[in-house]
Amino acid sequence: MHDAEQQTWSDVVDAARRTVADGLVVGTSGNVSALVGDDLVLVTPTGVPYHRLGPDDVVGIDLGTGRQVRGTLRPTSELPLHLAVYRGTSARAVVHTHAPHATAVSTLVAELPAVHYMTAELGGPVRVADYALYGTPELADAVLHALRDGRSACLLRNHGMISLGDTLERAYDRGAQLEWMCRVWLLATSTGSTPATLSAAELAAAAGKFTGYGQP
Ligand SMILES: [Zn+2]
Fold first, then answer.
1. Based on C-alpha coordinates, what's the Rg of the chain?
2. Which of 26, 51, 131, 200 could covalently link to 157 via disulfide, CB atoms 3.0 to 4.6 Å apart?
């Protein structure tokens, strides 16, 4: 493995472990991937607890052919979903979890109401992808449809959520923000009242401000 692959694999394993530590998944559900160069997708294997993954357990898939070109462990069953996202968007990292608040919201609405301005960081109101059996091309299609118009995250009905980014850190952070926003919406609606939501103009203003946010 080249240094870039080794580093990216280490980042993928770290992110996968964080999903467990942060309570976004239980056991080995959920999966993480990242792109190296233009066509090598490093992705977590199926059925191996993340704390047991080491430097030699890399799983690499050629994006063009879909064939495994690194490692011997079998890739996650959601590989078609990861490959479809890389083929259909500009993402370079993908995080898929079964975070509890996000999964709960996925059973209630077709779109998460814009209860917070972080909605803008996700490209606009977060849609819920139609249900399809896990690991199928139908699920990948439904997710890509829900991600249209530049969304960087969506919920998967009766399943979980997915978030994307140009880096693994950004994809992970978006997933964590989405889980937090789902929690906020559930808290607000649990009062029995209907939460106020932000208008498209208010979200656009927040999106504009994000552009200059952070350290120079
Ligand atoms: Zn899943």
1. 17
2. 131
Q: How would you write 170-206 as a 3-class SS string?
A: HHHHHHHHHHHHHHHHHHHHCCCCCCCCCCHHHHHHH
Provide the domain limits for residue 153: 3-210
State yes or no: is 78 an active-site residue.
yes
Cα of 114 vs centre of ligand 1, distance in Å, is 24
The domain that contains 24 carries what CATH number? 3.40.225.10
Q: Which of 68, 76, 50 is nearest to 135 (CA)?
A: 76
**Cα 162–Cα 166–Cα 167 angle in degrees, nearest 5:** 85
**C-alpha separations of 63 from 78, 171, 178 in Å:** 14, 19, 27
Tens digits of residue pLDDT in 147-195: 999 999 999 999 999 999 999 999 999 999 999 999 999 999 999 999 9
| Length of the chain as a residue count | 216
